[in-house]
């Protein structure tokens, strides 16, 4: 069986679905899913879903990077948040056609240079062994480097849903995807458009 050549772990037991343990995974890439852990980013009071080290551990499991909570430290939580915001700003710069911030680029590159989880041949196929939380964050950073420096960089989009700050990779054939999720923002937009038409017809 052919295996992925990407450096980012994709275990055969990785969770599926857009919503996993309270986190949103709608972007199609880990490097954009991590920034989604700051909910309501555009509102006056955003909600940080990575409030505690345990939350980070839950995210790493939900992302399919770890089979169980790797028990992050307070410092690793701080570093994960720092990496998260750097990835978000770099992706936003790409969307807006702006230059990358040098400090953000350097930070992501430093993390990408860390040893990533190592692939292992298990009894059921591909598994991953990590050197701890740092190696898992390195995998996210490497995904960011591959995305932001690769051919899909031009396909990064900002969801057009009202108040939604989620970023995603548009892999549609037309390249016209508008929402982070058809089940989420896409459905809300369609409902609002339907109501708007009803109001106009009722005048």
TrEMBL record:
Region (Disordered) residue ranges read: 1-20
Instruction: Show the Gene3D superfamilies listed in the entry.
Output: Jann2411-like domain (1.10.3300.10)
Q: Where is the Zinc finger CGNR domain?
A: 155-198
Annotated protein name in UniProt = ABATE domain-containing protein
């Amino acid at each position: 069986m052919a295996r992925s050549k990407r450096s980012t772990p994709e275990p055969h037991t990785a969770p599926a679905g857009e919503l996993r343990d309270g986190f949103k995974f709608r972007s199609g890439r880990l490097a954009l899913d991590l920034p989604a852990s700051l909910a309501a980013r555009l509102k006056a009071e955003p909600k940080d879903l990575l409030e505690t080290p345990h939350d980070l551990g839950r995210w790493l499991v939900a992302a399919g990077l770890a089979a169980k909570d790797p028990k992050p430290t307070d410092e690793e939580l701080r570093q994960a948040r720092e990496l998260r915001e750097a990835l978000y700003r770099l992706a936003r710069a790409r969307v807006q056609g702006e230059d990358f911030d040098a400090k953000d680029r350097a930070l992501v590159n430093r993390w990408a240079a860390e040893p990533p989880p190592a692939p292992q041949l298990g009894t059921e196929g591909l598994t991953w062994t990590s050197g701890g939380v740092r190696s898992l964050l390195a995998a996210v950073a490497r995904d960011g480097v591959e995305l932001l420096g690769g051919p899909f960089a031009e396909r990064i989009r900002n969801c057009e849903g009202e108040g939604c700050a989620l970023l995603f990779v548009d892999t549609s054939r037309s390249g016209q995807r508008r929402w982070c999720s058809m089940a989420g923002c896409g459905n809300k937009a369609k409902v609002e458009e339907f109501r708007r038409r009803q109001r106009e017809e009722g005048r």
